[in-house]
Fold this protein.
Amino acid sequence: MLLRHTPKEITERSALVINPAKTCQPIGAMYASLGINGCLPHSHGSQGCCAYHRSTLTRHYKEPIVAATSSFTEGASVFGGQANLLQAIENIFTVYEPEIIAVHTTCLSETIGDDLKQIAMKADKEGKIPAGKYVIGAPTPSYVGSHVTGFSNMVKAMAGLAESSGKKNGKVNIIPGWVEPSDMRELKRLAELIGVDYTLFPDTSGVLDGPLSGEYTMFPKGGTTVQALKESGDSIGTLALGEWCSADAARQLDAKCKVPCSVLDMPFGLKATDRFIDALRIVAGTTVPDEVTYERGQLVDLISDMHQYFYHKRVALVGDPDQLISMVEFLVSIDMCPVYVVTGTPGKKFEKRIKALTKDMPFEVKVKAKGDMFLLHQWIKNEPVDLLIGNTYCKYIARDEDLPLVRWGFPILDRQGHQYFPTVGYKGGLRLLEKILSALLDRKDRDEPERSFELVM
Amino acid sequence: MARTKKLVQWEPNDIKAELLKKYPPKVARKRAKQIMINEALENTTPEIVANVRTIPGIITMRGCTYAGCKGVIMGPTSDIVNLVHGPIGCSFYAWLTRRNQTSASGEKNENFITYAMSTDMQDQDIIFGGEKKLEAAIQEAYDLFHPKGIAVFATCPVGLIGDDIHAVAKKMKEKFGDCNVFAFSCEGYKGVSQSAGHHIANNQVFRHMVGTSTTEKTDKYKINLLGEYNIGGDGFEIDRILKKCGITNIATFSGNSTYDQFASANQADLSAVMCHRSINYVADMLEVKYGIPWIKINFIGASSTAKSLRKIAQYFGDKELIDRVEAVIAEEMPFVEAAQQDVLPRTKGKTAMIFVGGSRAHHYQDLFREMGMKTISAGYEFGHRDDYEGRQVIPTLKVDADSRNIEEIEVEPDEKLFRPRKTAEEMEALEKSGLHFKEYNGLNPDMDQDTIIIDDMNQYEADKLIQIMKPDLFCAGIKEKYSVQKLGIPQKQLHSYDSGGPYAGFKGAVNFYHEIDRLVNSKVWSYMKAPWQENPELSATYVWE
C-alpha cells in the first residue's frame, strides 16, 4: 500500500494539509500567459518558483514551457526586487524578443510588497520596453486562493489591455477558463460552426500542442494576439466560462469598456454545453447549424446506449471548482452519483453549488472546498466508490483501494491525450463518457466471474 | 534541422563569441567568464566562474535552495515526515516528482514519500506570523503518523516574516520525547542555486541525526555512500554490487535512506563520495568529528564502478575483500562488455552534450566513452569552481555575499565517538600506493582540449550551441527536454532520467547503453518532414494512370 499510513478514522485538522488538491497562484498565471501570442511569462520571485512551474507544465504537456524569472537573491529579498525586474525586462526584450512580457508575482515579492505597475512604468520611462511591445502584470500571492485564482488574475490582466474605441466590432469575447489547448481549439471550432466572430483568450492551442518538425521557435504562432486583446473592449459581449477562472476578467471588461458579460459554467457535459451553445447563438444573433445539433444528438445517443453502466455508480471527484461543477452536473444528468467532491480551492459557493446539483441523489453527498486528497481518501476508506475522477496523484489512492480511475484535471503527468482531444462540448462529452466507460468496463471484465463474463456489453 | 548535414567546423572561440553576441554588454561580460574553452593540460586549466548569481531574465536551468534541500536531499528518506512550512505550492511541486525510489515497501516499513504535507500558509499567517500554525501542524502530523522524525522546511515568506521554525521544532521535540523534530532554513531566495539547499540540508542531517544511534553495527567493511540519491533505482544497483562484494553500506546520503542509517553513519570506516558537489563537506565533517577518511568514487560507468570497488578494497586492504572484488568484477564484466559490443556499431562516433547537476555532467562522460561517444560540451547547473577545476582551488575560493549566509559547521573530534580508522603511517602508505584521500580533480581535466565548458547554461545558449554544433544527444533536465527535441535532437534527462534506470553500476551501465542506443537511433528523428516538404516542387511528368 502506497498510502498505508492514511487511517480510516477521520480526525479534524486545523493546520496540516496532506496531499493537496490545489497548488499555488503563479502556475495558473504562467499557464494563462502562454495563451497570449508572442508572450514570455515572467515569474517575479526566486528562481525555484519558475523552475517548478515550468517543470510541472512540461510534465503535463510534454512540450517546451519557456518562462523567465527575476532570480531573487537574499539581497533582493531584503531591498526589494525592482532592480531585478528592470534588468530582467531589458534582458528579455534584447535576447528573446517577445511581443509582450506577462509578469506575475510570487509569495516572496508579494510579502516584500513589490509594486508591478510602478516597476513596469519605470521600465517604460527608462526605455527598457521597445516601442509597440508590452509588459503586463498580475498579482498572484501564493498564500491566497489557489492556482485557479492565479489563472483568473492573469486573465484579468489580459483583459486590462482592452481599449474602447466607442464603436462595437461585432465580436464576442469568449473566456474559456483553465481548460486544455484541445478544449480551446474545440471552443473555437464550435464558435466558427455557429458563425460567431469571436476573440478567445487565453488561447493555448497552437502553443502547447505543437508538432515535432525539426524546428523550434520560442513563440509559436498560436495564442491570442495583443491586438485582439486590445480590441476585446469593442466586443458586443463576453461569455465567461467558469465563475472561478473567468468571471473577474469579464466583469472588468464590463466595468471598463461596457462589454456586457454573462458568466456560464464551463461547457463540460450535455447541459452545460447546451447552455453555452444557446448563449453563444443569442449573443451573436445566429442560428445553430444542424451539424452542432447532430453532435448533441450523438452524445444523447451514447448516454442512452450505455445508461445501464452509469446508473447509480458512486463516483469520487477531486479537482478545481469550475470543472467539478460542470462534471458533477454531467454525472448527475446521466444518473451517476458523485458522492465525494473535493477541491483544494477555497469557496463556500462551491459547496453550495454542488449540494444544489446533487440534492435529489439517492446517496449522501460529501463536498469540501479547501479540502485535500488525504480527506478524500479517508472518505473512500469509510465507504467505497465505483470510480475515481481526478489528476494523476489520484493513482496512489486508486491503486491502494483498487478503484478504476479516469484522469481528468491538472496535472496529468502519466498519460497522454489531454492536449489533443477535448473534453468540452458535445464531442468532449463523448470522450469523457468513453473514458468513464472504458474504466468501468475494463474493471468489470477483470472482476467478472468466468460464468458471467460477457462478450457483448 | 537536418541531422546529416554537419556544418563547417567552428572554432571554439567563434562559438563562444556567437553565444555572447546578442546579449546586452553587461550580460555578455558576465557570461563570458562562465564559458570556457577547455585547455586541460597539466593543471593549467584556466579559471571558470561558477556558483554565482543567475542573471534576472535569462532563462536559467537552475532551481532554488528549497528544491535542493527538500527535493533533493531530504526527499529520498522514507521514514521521516517532511513538513513544508509555507504556501501550498512548494510542497505540491516537490511531491513525488524526482523519481527517487525506496525499498520501504510492506506494511511494517514506514514510507512517507508518497505524502505531501504543508502548513498551507494563508494571508493572515503572513501578516500575523505562522509559528502557531506550524506548531499545530507538527502536532497533527505527530498524532496521525507517530514518525521517528519530522523535518520542517522553510519557504521564501517564512524567512521574510521571521518565523522561528527552529524554536518551534525544538519545543515540539521536547514535548514529544520520542520524535526528533528539526528544521531547515532553506528559503528559496538563499544562495544562488540548489547547491545552497544541499548544504543547508546536509548540515542539519549531520547535526540532528548522525551519531545518535545506540545500535552497534558489527559488519565487516563498513562504508557510507555519500551523494547518491537513488534516482531510477541507482542506489539499489550499487547496494547489490556492494553486498555481493561483502561491503556493508551503513548509510547512503540520501538515496533509499532511513532515519537509522543517518543515525549510524558515524560507525562506518570509510566514506565514499559519489556527488562531490552536494556533499563533500559532510565527508569532511565525518572525518573531523568521527575519524572516518573519505575517498572520491564514481559508480556511473562500468569501468568507473570497477575502479571504485578496487579503491574501497584497497582501503580496507584485506586480501579476502580484494579477491572478492576482483571476482565480482570478473563475473559482472562479460555481461557489460557484451552489451557494449552490441551497441558500439550504432553509437560509436556520436557526440553528446551534458548540462546537469554538480557531478553528473562529469560522471556520465564515462558512460558515453564506454559507448564510443564523445562529450563535446558540458557544464554544471549548480557546480562550484572545485567541481570544474579540482579541490586544490578550494582555499582560493572567494566567499561572496551569497555564500556567506550559507552556514559552515565547525566540528571538532567527538569526545566519545571519535576513532581514527587508520594511523597516520597507514594513511601515508595508502596515499603512496595510489589511493588518494580527499581528492577530486574536477570535470575539466577529463574533457578533451577545445571542448566547451559552460557553467549555469541557459535556454538561449543551449539553443544556439545545438544549432551550431549539432550534437547527436543533449542531456539536461525536464525543462529543457522538449525545446531540444523539437529541433530533432534527442534529449535525455540526467536529473530524473525521464523513465527507466538504474544507470549506475554494472547493470545500470547496460541499461544506459541500450537507452542511449534507443534514443539516438530512434526512427522518429527521420520523420521531421513530410514528403511534400522535402520535395515541394510538383513534377510535371507526374500523371494519373
